[in-house]
Specification:
The complex is a heterodimer of chains A (about 130) and B (about 150).
Chain A (H helix, E strand, L loop, with lengths): L2 H32 L2 H18 L2 H23 L2 H23 L6 H16 L3
Helix pairs in contact in A: 1-3, 1-4, 4-5
Chain B lengths: L1 E2 L4 H28 L8 H7 L2 H21 L4 H7 L2 H12 L7 H18 L4 E2 L14 H4 L2
Antiparallel strand pairs in B: 1-2
Helix pairs in contact in B: 1-3, 1-5, 5-6
The chains are: A mainly alpha (about 130), B mainly alpha (about 150).
């Protein structure tokens, strides 16, 4: 692989990871803003709950980011092997999600959660072999 | 401050997240294997694929995954839900080995072990960071510890 191809691969993986993390953080933030869906469904019914979720702006932007992540993944897969892009993007997303959740969602990412994220990250990488 | 807000019903939602994602992906893989490789010159074949029973079933299951995943995020932290639901990778590997009869290397089994350990780690801890909003409310049903004999 030439230096340009390596840079292009890093850029493709980065675009998948960044858009996936943004999507996950925005949808998680939207769900936190909306509140417990089980309780809302008990009050408003299934259609009312779907309406509450779909009319949330943050959720809409999150879904757009997840869609962008999906298309970035398809683009990356059309240029590089699945065995490289798949595990790299999935495992890195676990780590960036933990960081972003701590910074933006103010989640308490303690040692236990970091260990779990890193174990799953390593496990997903090994699944490629 | 973190706290556990898990009830038996919420464990069922997590099980749904895990099962629908792994079964959905496996159904898609099974369907696409039946149809054969899709050429980039004939993208309409992808639309035809959507109507095959396995692929259609996979899409329905993945819709179920997104609904249960959002439900889980409404009462648990993202950094708890993501590792906890990654047990789906383990189920997917088991389905690939025993249902689709794919070869699974020792390194992949080691990966399965790592993921299982990660899931075990995170699910023993609290599921939700309380920011003082009082959310999420506990449902009016007994917690798992109380529901079990």
């Amino acid at each position: 692989m030439t230096p340009f191809q390596i840079l292009a691969t890093i850029a493709m993986i980065a675009s998948v990871v960044i858009t996936a993390t943004a999507g996950d953080i925005l949808t998680a933030s939207a769900m936190r803003q909306i509140g417990d869906l089980d309780a809302i469904r008990a009050r408003r019914g299934l259609l009312g709950t779907v309406a509450v979720v779909l009319t949330n702006g943050r959720f809409g932007v999150g879904v757009i980011c997840l869609a962008l992540s999906f298309f970035s993944l398809l683009f990356a897969l059309s240029h590089r092997e699945l065995s490289l892009i798949g595990p790299a993007a999935t495992s890195l997303t676990f780590v960036t999600n933990a960081l972003a959740a701590k910074i933006f969602l103010k989640e308490n990412v303690d040692r236990r959660r970091w260990t779990a994220a890193l174990l799953v990250c390593a496990g997903v990488t090994l699944l490629a072999f | 401050m973190t706290k556990s807000t898990l009830t038996f019903r919420r464990y069922l939602v997590l099980a749904a997240v895990t099962l629908t994602s792994s079964c959905g992906d496996t159904f898609l893989a099974r369907g696409m294997k039946t149809l054969g490789p899709v050429s980039l010159h004939h993208p309409t074949e992808l639309i035809h694929a959507i109507f095959s029973p396995w692929v259609a079933g996979g899409i329905v299951l993945l819709c179920g995954f997104f609904a249960s995943y959002l439900t889980a995020l409404s009462w648990a932290d993202l950094t708890w839900v993501l590792p906890a639901s990654s047990l789906g990778y383990v189920i997917m590997t088991l389905l690939a080995r025993f249902w689709l009869h794919e070869q699974v290397s020792s390194l992949r089994w080691l990966g399965v072990l790592f993921i299982t350990a990660g899931v075990g780690f995170v699910t023993r801890g609290p599921s939700y960071t309380d920011h003082g909003t009082g959310k999420p409310d506990l449902l009016e049903e007994p917690a798992l510890e109380e529901a079990l004999p």
